[in-house]
């Protein structure tokens, strides 16, 4: 039986507007908005009234880059779809887009079905999939068309990780050409993996085995070069391009130059590049292993360029690349050899809070916070306006956010299934109070009320940001 819910008295913040409004929810969707105290709002009745006084009422976050249960480096990401989506809900994210993986020599269909099985009946919030292409051939190119038809409309390729995910320029070009034909958006991990492997081998031969060397061999110029090359291949194919986890000023410059030419090139960065740096990778006693991810953390001076890119819209999205590995037993696989440290950081629970802190710190505006964390990822990946905004007809994915609550980020209090926090001890202002997913309370005044299986697979259209 449908419950009619009224959220009353909050400041509704979307990418487009800020207004003191009441929100009426019916059948899991937003039915109407009206100015608080107005005649229409005062006339509304509901089965459940939620008092949002003193709080922001914002769209649920859309995290367009997560890796739940990802096999990598002889182990697997420590968050399952159940634990990871529960942590997402706690952090105000109500939709994730995870990556299904094609194994070399296998079909896209087999990889996608494996991820359907992992997620089905497990998720606390809604989910969708991108497809990682590890083996581009005539068969998989044809499969791309079929996947677009069933709502998997974006495909990730890697210029890194030779022997695992790597595609050469010819395969990348073929996939881009297919995307041009079927509307699929090509996502690119832009690092020159062939050159990086040479530098890794040379560093280890010199006895440079500590985690900090992970960042030193994955050089800024090799990210910038790969970004430039990916852009030129996309130009040849006539395809739009989305560059994932941009970490370096030089890579931002490549994207900005392409956009200045009017090219459909888009960039994503992640909280770790905005708030962490090579100082973390250099932490003693192997603690730096906690911060090993690819692209790697950069020297702190790159952060200004990333914030500037977010303000100028040369970077459009902040996702997490959430791919957690426990320090004990997983990150420790790389003791004595940094190249064996599983690549990835936990963060799906922290993104909305960290970006709110960025608002308070003057890096971005309040509406830009919602734009880069909710609205644009929804538009980029064919989920808008069902997701990413608060408007009549949208899913009632809504967060009541307390902008004055103070918290200290810590592994002791987070809900991700990982034994450390990348932001341990960081004091921030702002915290999720309550979360609705399709009108159902999954976090109610800091108490988890969700359930595995509430989250549903979302069929996506093609990119709406072109």
Sequence stretches where pLDDT stays below 50 over 5 or more residues: none
Radius of gyration: 21 Å
- How does the overall form come out from the CA principal axes? globular
Beta-strand percent range:
15-25%
Number of helices: 14
Give the N-terminus to C-terminus distance in angstroms.
Answer: 39 Å
Structural class: alpha/beta
Mean pLDDT rating:
98
Please give the largest β-sheet.
8 strands, mixed
- How many extended strands? 18
Task: Please give the share of residues in helix.
Answer: 25-40%
Characteristic key phrases:
alpha/beta; single chain; eight-stranded mixed β-sheet; globular; 466 residues
Please characterize this protein's 3D structure.
Helix 5 (169-182) links the parallel strand 11 (154-158) and strand 12. Strands 1, 2, 3, 4, 5, 16, 17 and 18 form an 8-stranded mixed sheet that branches. An 8-stranded parallel sheet has the order 6-9-10-11-12-13-14-15. The chain is α/β, with parallel strands linked by helices. 56% of the residues are buried. Helices cover 31% and strands 23% of the residues. The protein starts with a strand and ends in a 23-residue tail after the last strand.
């Amino acid at each position: 039986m449908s419950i009619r819910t009224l959220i009353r008295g909050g400041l509704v913040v979307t990418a487009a507007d800020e207004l003191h409004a009441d929100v009426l929810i019916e059948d899991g969707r937003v039915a109407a908005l009206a100015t608080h105290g107005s005649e229409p709002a005062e006339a509304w009745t509901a089965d459940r009234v939620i008092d949002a006084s003193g709080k922001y009422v914002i769209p649920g976050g859309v995290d367009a880059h997560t890796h739940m249960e990802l096999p990598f480096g002889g182990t697997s990401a420590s968050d399952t779809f159940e634990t990871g989506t529960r942590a997402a809900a706690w952090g105000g994210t109500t939709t994730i887009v995870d990556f299904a993986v094609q194994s070399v020599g296998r079909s896209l269909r087999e990889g996608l079905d494996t991820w359907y099985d992992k997620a089905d009946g497990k998720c606390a919030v809604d989910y969708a999939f991108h497809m990682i292409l590890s083996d581009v051939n005539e068969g998989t190119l044809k499969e791309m068309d079929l996947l677009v038809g069933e709502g998997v409309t974006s495909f990730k390729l890697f210029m890194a990780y030779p022997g695992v995910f790597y595609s050469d320029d010819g395969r990348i070009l073929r996939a881009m050409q297919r995307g041009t034909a079927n509307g699929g958006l090509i996502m690119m991990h832009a690092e020159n993996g062939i050159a990086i492997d040479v530098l890794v081998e040379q560093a280890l031969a010199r006895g440079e085995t500590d985690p900090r060397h992970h960042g030193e061999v994955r050089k800024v110029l090799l990210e910038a070069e790969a970004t430039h090359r990916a852009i030129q291949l996309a130009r040849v194919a006539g395809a739009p391009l989305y560059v994932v986890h941009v970490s370096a000023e030089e890579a931002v410059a490549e994207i900005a130059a392409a956009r200045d030419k009017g090219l459909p090139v888009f960039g994503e960065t992640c909280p770790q590049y905005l708030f962490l740096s090579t100082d973390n990778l250099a932490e003693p006693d192997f603690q730096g292993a906690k911060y090993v991810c690819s692209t790697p953390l950069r020297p702190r001076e790159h952060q200004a360029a990333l914030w500037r890119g977010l303000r100028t819209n040369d970077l459009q999205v902040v996702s997490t690349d959430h791919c957690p590995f426990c320090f004990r037993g997983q990150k420790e696989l790389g003791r004595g050899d940094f190249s064996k440290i599983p690549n990835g950081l936990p963060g799906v629970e922290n993104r909305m809070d960290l970006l709110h802190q960025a608002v308070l710190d003057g890096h971005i505006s309040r509406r830009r916070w919602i734009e880069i964390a909710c609205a644009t990822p929804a538009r980029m990946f064919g989920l808008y306006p069902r997701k990413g905004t608060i408007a009549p007809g949208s899913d009632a994915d809504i967060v009541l956010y307390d902008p004055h609550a103070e918290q200290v980020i810590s592994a002791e209090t987070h809900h991700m299934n990982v034994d450390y926090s990348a932001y341990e001890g960081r004091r921030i202002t702002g915290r999720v109070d309550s979360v609705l997913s399709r009108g159902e309370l999954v976090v109610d005044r800091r108490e988890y009320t969700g359930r595995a299986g509430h989250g549903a697979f979302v069929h996506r259209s093609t990119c709406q940001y072109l």
